[in-house]
Structure formats: C-alpha cells, structure tokens
Amino acid sequence: MNSSDLYSECRACPRNCGVNRFASAGFCGEGSKIRVAVACLHFGEEPLLTVHGGSGTIFLTGCNLRCAFCQNYQISQQGMGRDVSVGEFAEICIRLQEIGAENINIVTGSHHAPAVAEGLFEARKRGLTLPVCWNSSGYDSIESLKMLDGLVSIYLPDLKTLSSELSMKLCASSDYPDVARSAIEWLVERNPLSITEVSRECDGKTVVKEKIESGVIVRHLFLPGRFVETADVLEWLKHKIDGKAVISLMSQYTPVPFKGSDEELERRKRALSVIENRLVSSTEDSDLRDLIDAYDFDYLFYQELCPDTEWLPDFGRTQPFSYKLARPVWHWRDGFV
Fold first, then answer.
1. How far is residue 224's CA from residue 239's CA, in Å, rounded to a whole number?
2. CA distances (Å), 81 to each of 32, 61, 78, 125, 126, in order?
3. Percent of residues, the chain, with pLDDT higher than 70
4. Which domains does the chain have, with CATH numbers?
5. Could you say which of 72, 85, 126, 140 would form a disulfide bridge with 183 (CB–CB 3.0 to 4.6 Å)?
6. Which residues, at least 6 apart from 249, have a Cβ–Cβ distance to it below 8 Å?
7. Could you count the other beta carbons within 10 Å of the beta carbon of residue 121?
8. Tens of pLDDT along 95-131?
9. Which of 198, 245, 210 minimizes the C-alpha distance to 49?
10. What are the CA-CA distances from residue 79 to residues 36, 60, 117, 303, 336 (Å)?
C-alpha cells in the first residue's frame, strides 16, 4: 500500500479522520508531504541510542494527539516546520550518518508514516546503513507500522497512560490506551531485542558502551500527582513485555511557558487541570524508585530528577536545545547549518 491509498481518505494513523490530505490538512495539521522542523545530533536520548556519537534525530511537524503538556508544542501543534521532498529527507539522513550519528531517530512520525517510508527507502538507496528508530507517542496503526518493515529496526513508543478518561482530557483521544498497548505488543513480538557493546578511544582510554541495534524501548512519563497511573502502566509492562523490551521511566515533566491565542491557552489550562502542573517532587522521585525496585525489571532506565527547566526546546531557534544536549544539523528556516 502506498501513501496515496492512505492519504486520499486519511487512514495513516488510528484517528482515521478521512480527510483528503492531498487537498487539505488532517487532524494532525498536515498534508501529504513530510514537514521537518529540526535535525540534530541529540545526546539527551536513552544511553542505548546516544552511545558515543549521539542519536540523529529528525523532528517532524504535526501530531495525531493533542497532549496538553507537550514540550514540542511549537512543532506538534502550531505547525512550525517546512515541507521537504523525498530527496531532501534522504539527504538529511545521509548528512547525519556522515557526521557520526549512531542511528536515525524519526520523532513523531505516526501521521507521516507512508511518506517517511518513501523517504527512508530513498535514503537506503543513497547509502544509508544506520539503524532507524521510530520515536512515537505509541498512537500508531498496525497498518502503517507494517509499511516500516525492513526500514526501521528500533522502536521507541510511549505508553502515556492506561486511563481512557485521562487520555481523552490530556491528549484528545479516549482510545489511546487500547491503541498503544496493541501497537507495543505487536512491535515487541516482531522485533527481538539486540544490544551490542561498542568501544571508542577517548583521552587515551577505551570507553565501552551498550548500543541497541534492534528491538523496542517503551517510554513512560510520570505525571505529577498521578502515581496510580504510573503504577498501572508499570504493572502492565512487567507482565506483558518484561524481558522482551527495554523500559524507560522518565521524571522530566516540566510546566511549559506556552505561547498562543487566548482561546488556545485557556483550552490548554482546562486540560492541564486534571494533573498537578508542576515539577516532580523529591518525595515522588523516591516513591518511583521504590516502585521500580519492587518490580525488578530486566532492563529499565530511570531518569535522574532534574529541577532545571533551561533544557526546554525552542524550535524557532536554529539551535532549539542547549549545546550540551544537541548539535544542530538542519533547521526548517535555514536548511543545513
């Protein structure tokens, strides 16, 4: 199945919004062409992805969810980015490979899956050999994921919540839990975990790090004041995929200084009222550590608590992140930098 089959009455993601994306934008805010905001070497992803050289992240514009707390809202919900051809997308992938990226990391591509598949196929023809990571919200259709077979070997889905009520209020999708669980189980069964060790000389010393070559890493972001939701998610992960995939529990929830119209800000404020819109407390951090110790996962990352908010991205800048976190390679306004 090609992109025209899915885009003409859009079924590229679980929304199934039915819009002709060759003529107008779907729920995701996007038409039929890939739009890209930023490409960079990113050092803030999981260690299995960043390894020595950094993850070659490509942030796409638009999203099939409306997460009220989204830190990337400028590109996911406000349309920041520009169209790229299949050839330009492939060129971005090749440039990331040339400067030492450990992988190509496609961020928020669920609504662009058919076009991204075409872009990755072209990149392979031009010499891309790196593993490709599909970094998504977990709101993926199986039909679109099948289009990525043979092109993507690493999957990085979220599992935000198992509460339909919470996902409807925060993400505008009551079926998110069912869709995400189905997608994750499907991916885990078809993508066995493969982790290798790679070494690099640094200041006269040999540094050895682990690197994921294929398989699934499931992310879950703890929402302040919502300990029960996280406990439910970890319970499901323990019984369904422990030993088959990597778990990444994140504590980086950060209140975002959103900009937008009064109507947009009021709508976002109402949605965020269902959680405690604040940084994670040290008590919550301690409770989370106790919880993951009790579950004793085979392979789990837990993010260190960080009260600093300066890392929040601004995609209006050529360098959206701090230089400690990322090295810019391509920007929607400037092209290659």
1. 24
2. 14, 6, 9, 26, 24
3. 99
4. 35-336 (3.20.20.70)
5. 140
6. 220, 222, 230, 234, 288, 292, 300, 301, 302, 303
7. 15
8. 999 999 999 999 999 999 999 999 999 999 999 999 9
9. 210
10. 10, 10, 21, 29, 20
How far apart are alpha carbons 307 and 322 in whole angstroms?
16
Q: Which two tokens stand for residue 325?
A: 């976190």
Please say if the pLDDT value at position 182 is more than 70. yes
| Pairing outcome for strands 55-60 and 104-107 | parallel
Q: What is the pLDDT of residues 59-84, one digit of tens each?
A: 999 999 999 999 999 999 999 999 99
Global confidence as pTM? 0.97
pLDDT of amino acid 308 = 72
Give which of 107, 115, 112 is closest to 70, Cα–Cα.
107
3-state secondary structure of 311: coil
Residues in the chain: 337
